[in-house]
Amino acid sequence: MTTHPEGRREHPVARRSALRSIAVFEAFKGIAALGAGLGLLSLLHHDLHHLAIELIGHFHLDPASHYPTIILRYADALQDANLRSLVALGIGYVILRLVEAYGLWFETSWGEWLAALSGALYIPFELRHLLYRPTAIGAAVLIGNLFVVGFLAHQLWHRLRHRHDREPAR
User: What is the pLDDT of residues 99-134, one digit of tens each?
Assistant: First the structure.
């Protein structure tokens, strides 16, 4: 632990650990999205509606109940979707997450900016979801995202202040 000239304490090891934890989580999201995308590509020339019905039957679910209906709706929507657009969006998401993870792992300011901005984009959607479908998981996701975005904003604020303190007076 070091002491800043203004008297506040800095914890470089804790800061690095937090940034690297966030980086690992972002890389995991990117790799998971890559796996999901590859899985969807493997279904390219299959009847997704038929596969969804077989999956629902395999688990002995009622096709008219809530979640099986959602699965069938998404299977139909995916069957009709523009695959090139979905692949382009998926590749963009994977690249964004992996670039973000790289920037955070190596403690770059652009990585912190990218992570803070991309995380902040989800907050309005998470709030809306929590208002209309309140669940403990939804609340945990929102709180976790607020914590990550707040931490990164705090780091960026300190980085900017430290840069300002080092500049010579004119």
Answer: 999 999 999 999 999 999 999 999 999 999 999 999
Task: With residue 9 as reference, give the H or E element that holds it.
Answer: strand 9-10
Residue 83, token pair as written in the block? 């695959």
Which residue stretches of the chain are H helix? 12-42, 48-58, 66-80, 83-105, 109-132, 136-166
Tell me the per-residue pLDDT of 19-49, one tens digit each, with 9 for 90 and over. 999 999 999 999 999 998 888 788 777 888 8
Q: In the chain, what are the domain boundaries?
A: 1-106, 108-170
pTM for the model stands at: 0.74
pLDDT average, residue stretch 139-145: 96
Q: By the 8 A CB rule, do 94 and 33 touch?
A: yes
Rounded to the nearest 10°, the torsion over CA 26, 30, 32, 36 is 150
Cβ contacts of 91-100, under 8 Å, gap ≥ 24:
91/37, 93/30, 93/33, 94/30, 94/31, 94/33, 94/34, 94/37, 95/30, 96/30, 97/26, 97/27, 97/29, 97/30, 97/33, 98/26, 98/27, 98/30, 100/23, 100/26
